[in-house]
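Retro notes (design track)

What went well: tokenization of the new backbones is finally stable.
What didn't: we kept losing track of which sequence belonged to which structure.
Fix going forward: every design gets posted as structure first, then sequence, in one message. First example under the new rule, 89 residues:
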């Protein structure tokens, strides 16, 4: 097991984690920005107005992105399991 191999596996793990976290985080960011602008314009400072739509939007984003998230995670896991014999030899 070389340094390059460990660095490559670590880089791929972080990239996969970022890709899996992106859909809900980006959705929460966009919805939060829209709600903040709405609250600033209307001067309604209700906390549930900020939290509930974000939670619903993130849930919808996860449901919509679920097949892609599952495929990405399965692909990465399969790749890791396929490299185990070459590391252990």
């Amino acid at each position: 097991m070389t340094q390059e191999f460990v660095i490559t596996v670590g880089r791929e793990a972080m990239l996969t984690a970022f890709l899996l976290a992106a859909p809900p985080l980006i959705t929460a960011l966009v919805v939060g920005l829209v709600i903040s602008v709405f609250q600033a314009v209307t001067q309604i400072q209700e906390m549930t107005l900020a939290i509930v739509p974000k939670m619903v939007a993130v849930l919808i984003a996860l449901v919509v992105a679920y097949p892609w998230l599952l495929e990405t995670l399965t692909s990465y896991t399969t790749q890791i399991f396929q490299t185990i014999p070459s590391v252990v030899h």
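Added context from the reviewer: DSSP finds two helices and no strands in the chain.
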